[in-house]
Design brief:
This protein is of the alpha+beta class. The chain contains 4 helices and 6 strands, in the order E-E-H-E-E-H-E-E-H-H.
Amino acid sequence: MRAGWRCEYCLLPEEHGGYPHHVDHIVSRKHGGESGEDNLAFACPVCNRNKGTDVASLSTVSGQPIRLFHPRQQAWPEHFQFVGPRIDPLSETGEATVRLLRLDDRWRVQERAASQLAEIPEA
């Protein structure tokens, strides 16, 4: 309920996903993450699969590790913005997350356009 039944990475409502959303360990148990509320996020199957156990990606500019977006510690609008149905990054964290989770693959953009999902839900 905390996520408003939307993926906390791409904001896709569960009702538009085709399959039930999952509970994602933001920091996987493999990397020492706990199963407490502060380490769990509601994620669509595509974001959950693409993220896997990753917690970071390499910067395309510096080659240095950049942590992925952490829905319990960071605010979505500080790292991403909708430009029509696209999700554009606003930070290195946003860029790494968009790239690794493939938030702007063509079919995901088409899915958001068809569902008119280019908006951030009210808090």
